[in-house]
Write a structure and sequence with these properties.
There is one protein chain. The protein folds into two domains: 144 residues, Rossmann fold, CATH 3.40.50.720; 278 residues, Dihydrodipicolinate Reductase, domain 2 (2-Layer Sandwich), CATH 3.30.360. The protein has 15 helices and 16 strands. The strands form two sheets. Strands 7, 8, 9, 10, 11, 12, 13, 14, 15 and 16 form a ten-stranded mixed β-sheet that branches. β14 and β15 form a beta hairpin. α8 packs across α9. The chain is globular. Bound molecules: NADPH dihydro-nicotinamide-adenine-dinucleotide phosphate and the ligand O=C1O[C@H](COP(=O)(O)O)[C@@H](O)[C@H](O)[C@H]1O.
């Protein structure tokens, strides 16, 4: 039985009139409510500058639930927990009204004083909001207080440090929950179970048996009206700094002493510390940056990146990154971790392929030349599951053939699979920060990303182009070819 007392809290959503709140936060809270994981004792205070009232917000929440195809049988009681306060985060006087509103809701719903402040707003406000929460006494309560912060956490190491210092003046590290929604995905969370709960993988998980690891996160979508943001971010900051490096660290971390937040984070941090630095000297051999050209997606002609709204026609912003990352430690020396991510690619897919080394002497390979390496494929999205690729005998023949052992979640499992945000909100209520990024992870990731970004500034090479609707530029194939490796065709797996 889950401990519902932990979820007896006020959720204060800064930016409740925005896109994230509507598409992700309201449906996730509702799912938790329907599943009984959110106690009946909770209140949500939505904030935004718009002159809305409680009814307007409740109407928007209801619309959000209808759009996300929820069963609406509990919606009326759910909505009674929502209220709205018109609020400008830059106006200090607003916080006095917010304090009063929180206290009123705590009285109305008989809450013990637990408060979650969720920043679903543009990052330039994060520091200021955290400090005002502290300065205006919103943390003075008999319960706990937690701060949930959306990405991006800074735009480089320097800005991330400034932001972190501002936040840390108001909240302790263990009160801060930095969202990386990939850490809420079912199969990303499954990486540790696959690795640490299976005798068949644990002894093989090192440079003696693994040839390379490939992580692909491809999207069909373009920048979808976010050109202004994306111009400054590019795929490097948008996807690599957070989601891709989080997956690398989960795949390469050593076995933690225990499954606690501190132990797991500490092992992940060691991986990030061991990442080989990228410099002007090795950038051209280790990282490929590219930008999409026009092309065809789902049978429709789509424009090139530089023709998108709010994008400079001369832009050099990368919409695709592929990189060969080396982890300079005892376990992984010599094993490339290849990552690639991009917009306007052939498929929407996130997959991890672990390629095992060939046997020293494989008699069948010699005879039949048809054996391939063993693979472990972790399907993160849209399909969820794992595939193990082995060599087997072709039935009725002496030839060998690849055999796929598949486990995919069936449709019933998938209906019950919570969305990433739902899991993360739940973890935050329970005080479990394991699947949130610690400051050390954020800062180490920024160090690598800054090194790449600086080397790009110095490099004579500009981004290459790839046609929209493809799996990226040929240069990304060359990145692997030098090591006699090739990208596995995730679009067909
Ligand atoms: N949308 C998404 O899918 C994702 C978003 N994120 C992150 O989530 C955060 C929010 O994104 P998103 O919802 O898309 O952004 P939106 O632009 O849709 O919403 C911004 C929100 O901020 C509020 N706001 C802006 N200025 C003020 C102010 N001075 N005082 C009070 N409220 C203000 C707006 O309310 P009003 O206009 O009423 O003032 C609105 O509710 C960002 O950090 C983004 O990077 C991360 C991953 C995915
Ligand atoms: O954080 C982000 O992630 C999405 C991709 O998320 P996914 O869960 O659909 O794989 C990406 O589209 C967006 O640009 C980025 O900000």
């Amino acid at each position: 039985m889950e401990d519902n007392r932990q979820s007896e809290a006020v959720f204060v959503i800064f930016g409740s009139t925005g896109d994230l709140a509507k598409r992700k936060l309201f449906p996730s809270l509702y799912n938790l409510y329907v599943k009984g994981l959110l106690s009946n004792k909770f209140a949500v205070i939505g904030l935004g500058r718009r002159e809305w009232n409680d009814e307007t917000l409740r109407g928007v929440v209801q619309e959000a639930l209808e759009e996300s195809n929820q069963q609406l049988d509990k919606v009326d009681s759910f909505l009674t927990h929502f209220s709205y306060l018109s609020f400008d985060v830059t106006n200090k006087d607003s916080y006095k009204g917010l304090k009063q509103e929180i206290e009123n809701k705590e009285k109305d719903f008989q809450l013990p004083g637990n408060r979650i402040f969720y920043m679903a707003m543009a990052p330039e406000f994060f520091g200021q909001i955290a400090q005002s929460i502290h300065n205006y006494g919103l943390k003075e309560t008999n319960g706990w207080t937690r701060l949930v912060i959306e990405k991006p956490f800074g735009t480089d190491l320097q800005t991330a440090k400034v932001l972190n210092n501002e936040i840390r003046e108001a909240f302790a590290e263990d009160e801060i929950y930095r969202i990386d929604h990939y850490l809420g995905k079912e199969m990303v969370q499954n990486i540790q179970v696959i690795r640490f709960a299976n005798a068949m993988f644990a002894p093989l998980w090192n440079n003696r048996h693994i040839a390379n690891v490939q992580i692909t996160s491809s999207e069909k979508l373009g920048v979808e009206g976010r050109g202004g943001y994306y111009e400054k971010s590019g795929a490097l900051r948008d996807m690599v700094q957070n989601h891709m490096l989080q997956m690398v660290s989960l795949l390469a971390m050593d076995v933690p002493l225990q499954l606690t937040t501190d132990e797991i984070r500490s092992e992940k941090i060691k991986v990030l510390r061991a990442l080989r630095l990228i410099t002007n000297d090795n950038i051209d051999d280790t990282v490929v940056r590219a930008q999409y050209d026009e092309g065809t997606i789902n049978g429709q002609q789509v424009p090139s990146y530089v023709e998108e709204d709010n994008v400079d026609p001369q832009s050099h912003t990368e919409t695709y990154v592929a990189a060969k990352l080396m982890i300079d430690n005892h376990v992984w020396a010599g094993v490339p971790f290849y990552i690639r991510t991009g917009k306007r690619m052939a498929v929407k897919s996130t997959k991890i392929v672990v390629e095992f080394k060939e046997m020293p002497l494989n008699l069948y390979a010699k005879e039949h030349k048809a054996t391939g390496p063993n693979l472990l494929i972790i399907h993160i999205q849209p399909d969820e599951g794992i595939t193990i690729v082995l060599n087997g005998k072709k039935i009725g023949s002496a030839d060998t053939t690849p055999v796929h052992l598949e486990y995919r979640h069936d449709s019933e499992d998938r209906i019950n699979t919570p969305e990433a945000y739902e899991r993360l909100l739940y973890d935050c209520m329970m005080g479990d920060a394991t699947n949130f990024a610690h400051w050390d992870e954020v800062s180490l990731s920024w160090s690598l990303v800054d090194a790449i970004s600086n080397a790009w500034k110095e490099s004579a090479r500009k981004p290459v182009n790839y046609r929209a609707g493809t799996m990226g530029p040929k240069e990304a194939d060359q990145l692997l070819a030098g090591e006699n490796h090739a990208w596995w065709p995730v679009e067909e797996m």
